Amino acid sequence: MIWLGIESSCDETACAVLQDEPLKVLSNPLYSQIDEHALYGGVVPEIAARAHLQKIVPVAEAAVKEAGIKLSDIEAIAYTTGPGLMGPLLVGASFAKGLARDLQIPAYGMNHLEGHLAAAWLSNPEIEPPFLTLTVSGGHTELVMEEPGFKYTSIGRTRDDAAGEAFDKCGKLLGLKYPAGATISRLGANGNRKFVDFPRALRGHDNCEFSFSGLKTSVLRFTETHDPEYIQKNLGDICASLEDAIVDSLVTKTINALKITKMKTLVVGGGVSANAWLRTRLQDYCGKHGIKFCIPDRSLSTDNGAMIAAAAIRRKRQNLLTSVEVVKPWMPLAL
Ligand code: KG4
Ligand code: ZN
User: What separation in Å is there between the alpha carbon of 299 and the centre of ligand 2?
Assistant: First the structure.
């Protein structure tokens, strides 16, 4: 079966073509709107919606072309229904439903976070729940137990900012462009992680909650109490210390959750899962403790269309594909 995956929840217009047996990503192009938002230091929902509208058709055409198929070969569509920005989601949903109606095929609304975890499943299709999941993106930071039948239990989440948000906002304070996560990681790659002792919130607690707002304040104080030349000269070490503070919190709480739940598999997803230091630290712990570690290929960590189609395929294999929308020609296009 040939699937078209559509992701438009934030600032990437992404489409992908996947075949489900054998499981294979045939194409996965995207248009990143980063440059359109950079001027404002974050995503502007209206600009995002407009850019999705302009790019969704060319990106879908590119997905079909790169996969070497015809549009009529697509047998099902999976698109993101949320969480995400309302305008951008609406563009993806309208396009998905319009195309499904035209091709007379089903369109399935998928959860974006389930998509991020499905990106890890694409590299490890043999894993079976129960397992512990860690979702770390620009909008979410949460530890969730997944049991058979897509039953989810939250073990702990952030009390304030998400990990990606912490990277982006602290980066902005340091004068870095949005989104700053990958830049901080690159600048800090050879830096001294102990250069600044940034706070690790809720450190002494055995719980699985996160908090990053204090770190943001601490970076703000740091920029207020050190002159710009000093910050520029030591940017590599500051970035390394900042990255270590965020990653340390993520790893400590994930280890707590693994101990509490006694899970033997850890599945990680979301944009921050591209972070090399986080991958190394979690891999190390899991390797030493006999825990299977599943994380997306780095190219599939941040938002993309393949993860949305993968989420649908994963559900279909368990006969739990819900939110079916076989759009009939006579049906109004209700969203
Ligand atoms: O999953 P994603 O693409 O979008 C959301 O669903 O939010 O995640 C984007 C987030 C941004 O905050 C970005 O700074 C962060 O992921 N990110 C990284 C890295 N690559 C992307 N953070 C740390 N290290 C990276 N290499
Ligand atoms: Zn995402």
Answer: 13
